[in-house]
Amino acid sequence: MTDPPSRDRGVTAALQGHPILLVLAAVLSVQFGGALAATLLPLIGVFGSVLLRILLAAVMLVALVRPRWRGRSREDWLTVTMFALALTCMNVAFYASLERLPIGVAVTIEFLGPLTLAAAMSRRWRDISAVALAVVGVVLISEVLTVPWAQMDLVGIGLAAAAGGFWACYILLSGRTGARFEGLDGMAIALVIGGVAMLPLGLFDAGTSLLDGEVLLRGLGIALLSSAIPYSLELLALRRLSAGVFGILLSLEPAAAALAGLLVLGQTLAPSQLVGMALVVCASIAVLGRRGRV
């Protein structure tokens, strides 16, 4: 009778024994989920893709977590609703940017959001200088200096930057939500709220295409890769990993996005863009890697 639980504990212990590998797997999972989402956009559009991703993730997480709905205060509901709004807007802006930019470029620009937030919260000149370095990196990766202004996709760059701003809001609100909700209850409820909010826009955008078998299969893959798998892996890893090391590993997301774009979408970046990405990654490591030693 005790063998199955013992085996489960053994598997969990083995996974927690390699927290760095767990975070790296989560980073790759998120970015390959984003690359898969880019293949879904031509089929059902931005709103349809976001609806499918959030709704399927909500179904899986609610079934797994079984959050408590009753007994919540007005402040609890206000907090989780704002969290859901930030999460949903972040996804809409990011997916819209993928229609115009390579995923490696979009993620690198988006990463300015949490990087700037971390530097602003630390208020150290070293961190602020790192953000300035990251801005130089974004200038290189966006090809502002080499592409004629008329050919620049300013809308795509603006959407990626907006996604970064919403990502910063998401980080702030996730802390407040975590303080009011147990475990993953807040995330599960936020996904439900976001899914309901996206329902009219998603149905208008995609219509009956949402029920297509290929669309549902890709949507399920995106929900798993972008939400269910990374949330679970990061939750296990954070039990054994310092905030500083976790931040350094997350700083590899732009590079992971470029890899996913190459392997899944066949997207390549110019040498100057790769240099810009490297600058952003280095700046992120400098800032986020210090979070555990503030």
UniProtKB/TrEMBL annotation:
Q: Which Pfam families match?
A: EamA (PF00892)
Q: What is this protein called?
A: EamA family transporter
Which UniProt key words apply to this protein?
A: Membrane, Transmembrane, Transmembrane helix
Q: How does it sit in the membrane?
A: Multi-pass membrane protein
Tell me its family: Belongs to the EamA transporter family.
Tell me the SUPFAM superfamilies matching this sequence.
Multidrug resistance efflux transporter EmrE
Localization: Membrane
- Chain segments annotated as coiled-coil in the UniProt record: none
**What positions does the domain EamA occupy?**
155-287
Q: Does the keyword Transmembrane helix apply?
A: yes
Whose protein is this, by species? Ornithinimicrobium cryptoxanthini
The residues that cross the membrane are 20-38, 44-65, 77-97, 103-121, 128-149, 155-173, 185-203, 215-233, 245-265, 271-289
Q: What is its main location?
A: membrane
Query: Upper taxonomic classification of the species?
Result: Bacteria, Bacillati, Actinomycetota, Actinomycetes, Micrococcales
